[in-house]
Amino acid sequence: MKHSLKFFLSLFLLALLSCKNHTQDAKFHIYLCFGQSNMEGQGKIEPQDTIVDKRFQVFQTINCANKGFIIDQWRAATPPLCQCNSGAFPF
Question: Alpha-carbon distance 91 to 41, whole Å?
Answer without folding.
Answer: 10
